[in-house]
Write a structure and sequence with these properties.
about 10% strand; about 675 residues; four-stranded antiparallel β-sheet
Length: about 675
C-alpha cells in the first residue's frame, strides 16, 4: 500500500488512466447541498489562496494491457463531483459562454478523456450502474442528457452557478488545483481491499449489511469479473428479494449455519461462514441466486399453482417471516425430487394452522425462530425421511411441548371463544374474520378490501355503550354479560350499516337497511331469524364459530411411528422449562462447531471459560457482583478455577442456566447465540 499527499488534479493526470467505480459501490448520491458546499469552499480557497484538504481516495490498481484501471474503493463521491465540475467548465468554454485563459483541451485530455483509448474507455471515469450512462450523456448535446439523476442535476447546478460569475473560470480552475487529497493506492494481490474498506467505513458511512456482503463478495475480483458476477448473480438476487437482500441473507445463513444472525451482524456471520467453509465465490453466488428464487416465491406469494400461492399469502398476512428459512428448504427439497407439490401444500397449510393457533392461544413467539431454524434438520435426522417427509414433519411439530407447542383443540377452542377479538392486532383480526367468512364459500368475500374502502365495518352486536333497551334485553346481570362478552368472537361481526347507529336495539340492527337481515355474509346468517340478543345467543354463536374454526385450522395428526426420541434444541430464552433430570448432550456457541458434553457441570465450566476469554475484566466483575465467586472455594471439591478465581459447579441445571444467562447478557452478547441439545 502506498499513501501520498497529492493535488487532486495530479491524481487525474495520465494519458491512459481509467477510474472505475466498482459495481458493488452505491450509486452516486451527492445532492445540491454538498455541491454548493464544495463550490463555496472553492470561492474561499480563491480568496485566501490556500490549499484545501479534500479527503482520501483509495484505489486498487489493475493493468489490463491497454489502460491503467483504478478501482475506486473509497472517494467516489468526491471524484465524481469534481469530474462533473471540470466537465461543466469545459462545456462552458467550448460553447464560448465566458471569456477565460484556461485551455479547454487541457481539461478534456488531462482530466476527462483518454484521447487514444477505445471508445468504451475514452471517458476516464466510469460510474456505477445507471450513473455510467448519465455521465456519458453529458459529453453529448443537451438534448441527450439523462434527466432526473444526481449526475445530471449536479452537473447542471455547477454549469448554472459558473455562469453567475461569482468566480471567474480562471480563478475557479486555480482553486481546483489547490485541492489536496491523500492518494492511497493498494497493491493488487498483496493488499486486502476489503480490510481497508472496513477500516475506512467503520464510522460514518451507513452501509446496509447487504452492501457489506456484496462488497466482500466482489471487491477482490478484477473489474470484468465484478461486472459478470454483478450482472449474472447479484443484480438478480437483489431483484428476487425486492432489494431486501439483508433479510434474505440472514435467512440463508440460518439455513446453512443453523443459527440466526443478529440483524446488525449479518455481514460478520456471512464473512465467517465463507472463511470457515472455504467457499468458492461463484459457487456461493449460484447458491444464493437459487435460494433467492425460492425467497421471491415466498415474499410475493406467487408460485405456479394458485393453491400454494394463496397459502403463502396467508403466511405473509400473518407476518410469519421466521418460517421463511424452512419454506426455502422445502422448495429446494422439491427441486431435488425429495417431496412433491402436494406435500408442500400440506406442509404450508400446517404452518398456517400452527402459527394461527399459537396467536389465538397467546403462546410466546420466541420459540418459533428455533423451531423453523432446525425443522429441516430434524426431519432429515430420520433415515426414512425421503419416504415419509410429510408425516415426519407432522410427527415433529405436533410433539413439541411448552413454548414450542401446537395448541390442541381443547386449548384453541377455549381461547378463541374467550379472546378479546376486537382488540386483537388488526391484521390478525381481519385474517380471522375473513377465513371464517370464506371457508367453503365459492363466492369469496374480499373482507380486507371492503373494510379498507369503508363498505364494511367490524362491529359489536351488543354495543359498546348500553342503552336502557339493551340493559333490559340482557337482563339483570347485564353489567357482567357486557364486560365478559363485549369484545369476544360471539359478539363481533361485519356490517354495512352506519357505525354511528351501532347502539340501536338488536331488532333495529337486524331489520334496518344494510342490517343483519339483508346481509348475505355467513357471519350474519345466524342472526337473520333471531328475535333478541342475550348471553345465551352470544354463547351459541361463539360455539358455532368455534366449530367452524376447528375445521378451518385443523390440528394435524401423524401416522408416523418412531422409537427414537427427538433431540430437543433449546436456548437460554427457554427459561420457563424445567431441565431437572434431563441429560445435556451438546452445545453450540457463537458460530463454533457443536461440542459434545458429559454433564451440566462440563457445560458450565466450558461456557464460563469461553466467556472469560471474550472479556476477562467484565467477566470477573459479573462473578463478583453476583456472588458467583466464594471465598475458600479452592478447597471445595466441585470448584473450577478460571485464572485467579474459582466458580462452584455443583449446581442444578436451572441454576447453571440462570448464571450463564446473567453472564451472557451482562457481557453484552445475545442469549440466542448459545444453543444446547438434550434428550
Amino acid at each position: 500500500m502506498k499513501a501520498n499527499e497529492k493535488k487532486f488534479t495530479r491524481f487525474l493526470e495520465g494519458s491512459d488512466k481509467h477510474f472505475i467505480i466498482p459495481v458493488y459501490q452505491r450509486n452516486y448520491d451527492w445532492k445540491k447541498e454538498q455541491c454548493k458546499q464544495l463550490f463555496d469552499d472553492l470561492i474561499d480557497i480563491s480568496k485566501t489562496n490556500r490549499t484545501h484538504f479534500l479527503g482520501s481516495i483509495v484505489s486498487i490498481y489493475h493493468d489490463d494491457g491497454e489502460d491503467l484501471e483504478y478501482l475506486i474503493i473509497d472517494g467516489q463521491q468526491r471524484l465524481t463531483t469534481l469530474s462533473l465540475l471540470l466537465l461543466a467548465i469545459y462545456k462552458i468554454i467550448n460553447n464560448n459562454l465566458l471569456q477565460t485563459n484556461v485551455n479547454k483541451e487541457q481539461i478534456k485530455d488531462e482530466y476527462l478523456i483518454n484521447k487514444y483509448s477505445k471508445d468504451d474507455k475514452k471517458i476516464r471515469l466510469k460510474p456505477v450502474k445507471n450513473d455510467k450512462n448519465a455521465f456519458a450523456s453529458l459529453f453529448k448535446e443537451e438534448n441527450d442528457y439523462i434527466q432526473d439523476t444526481n449526475i445530471t442535476i449536479n452537473f447542471q447546478y455547477f454549469y448554472e452557478r459558473i455562469l453567475k460569475k461569482e468566480l471567474s473560470i480562471d480563478k475557479l480552475f486555480l482553486a481546483i488545483k489547490q485541492l489536496i487529497i491523500v492518494d492511497i493506492e493498494l497493491k493488487n494481490g498483496e493488499d486486502d481491499p476489503q480490510l481497508i474498506f472496513e477500516s475506512l467505513n467503520s464510522t460514518g458511512l451507513d452501509l446496509k449489511e447487504a452492501d457489506k456482503v456484496r462488497n466482500f463478495i466482489l471487491m477482490k475480483e478484477n473489474s470484468s469479473t465484478q461486472e459478470r458476477f454483478y450482472t449474472f448473480y447479484w443484480n438478480k438476487i437483489e431483484e428476487n428479494t425486492n432489494y431486501n437482500v439483508s433479510d434474505f441473507i440472514r435467512d440463508y445463513l440460518t439455513i446453512k449455519e443453523r443459527t440466526i444472525p443478529n440483524k446488525n451482524k449479518v455481514y460478520l456471520h456471512f464473512k465467517r461462514y465463507v472463511t470457515n467453509n472455504i467457499v468458492n465465490i461463484e459457487e456461493l453466488l449460484k447458491d444464493l441466486l437459487k435460494f433467492s428464487t425460492y425467497y421471491k416465491k415466498i415474499i410475493n406469494s406467487k408460485v405456479n399453482t394458485d393453491e400454494i400461492s394463496l397459502i403463502l399469502n396467508k403466511i405473509n398476512r400473518l407476518e410469519s417471516v421466521v418460517t421463511y428459512p424452512f419454506i426455502m428448504e422445502i422448495f429446494e427439497d422439491k427441486d431435488n425430487g425429495i417431496i412433491c407439490e402436494e406435500d408442500i401444500k400440506s406442509i404450508l397449510n400446517i404452518i398456517v394452522v400452527f402459527v394461527f393457533r399459537r396467536l389465538i392461544c397467546e403462546v410466546p413467539t420466541n420459540a418459533l425462530n428455533k423451531i423453523f431454524m432446525t425443522m429441516a434438520r430434524e426431519i432429515k435426522k430420520y433415515n426414512d425421511f425421503k419416504e415419509h417427509y410429510l408425516e415426519i414433519f407432522k410427527y415433529i411439530i405436533t410433539r413439541k411441548k411448552l413454548t414450542g407447542r401446537f395448541p390442541n383443540d381443547e386449548e384453541f377452542g377455549l381461547k378463541i371463544v374467550q379472546k378479546d377479538i376486537y382488540n386483537f392486532k388488526s391484521k390478525n383480526k381481519l385474517f380471522l374474520l375473513e377465513q371464517l367468512e370464506n371457508y367453503d364459500n365459492k363466492e369469496r368475500v374480499d373482507i380486507e378490501n371492503l373494510i379498507s374502502n369503508n363498505i364494511l365495518t367490524i362491529e359489536h352486536i351488543m354495543p359498546q355503550k348500553l342503552t336502557p333497551i339493551w340493559r333490559e334485553s340482557l337482563g339483570s346481570n347485564y353489567e357482567v354479560i357486557h364486560e365478559k362478552y363485549l369484545h369476544t368472537l360471539g359478539n363481533i361481526t361485519l356490517t354495512g350499516y352506519n357505525s354511528k347507529l351501532s347502539n340501536k336495539s338488536f331488532l333495529e340492527k337486524r331489520d334496518m337497511q344494510k342490517g343483519f337481515k339483508e346481509s348475505r355474509l355467513f357471519l350474519n346468517k345466524a342472526l337473520h331469524s333471531l328475535e333478541d340478543w342475550n348471553e345465551e345467543k352470544i354463547i351459541n354463536r361463539a360455539n358455532d364459530l368455534k366449530d367452524r374454526a376447528l375445521i378451518i385450522w385443523t390440528l394435524p395428526h401423524s401416522t408416523y411411528q418412531s422409537e427414537e426420541d427427538n433431540l430437543k434444541i433449546f436456548t437460554l430464552n427457554d427459561d420457563d422449562i424445567s431441565f431437572t433430570g434431563e441429560k445435556i448432550l451438546s452445545f453450540k456457541f457463537m458460530e463454533e462447531k457443536e461440542k459434545i458434553l458429559n454433564s451440566w457441570k462440563d457445560f458450565y465450566r466450558i461456557i464460563s471459560s469461553m466467556l472469560y476469554e471474550l472479556d476477562p475484566i467484565k467477566f470477573k466483575q459479573i462473578i463478583v457482583d453476583n456472588n458467583y465467586n466464594y471465598e475458600g472455594l479452592a478447597k471445595v471439591r466441585d470448584s473450577y478455577k478460571i485464572n485467579e478465581f474459582y466458580i462452584y459447579t455443583n449446581l442444578s441445571a436451572e441454576a447453571i442456566l440462570s448464571r450463564l444467562r446473567v453472564l451472557i447478557e451482562e457481557i453484552g452478547l445475545d442469549v440466542n447465540d448459545l444453543t444446547f441439545t438434550i434428550v
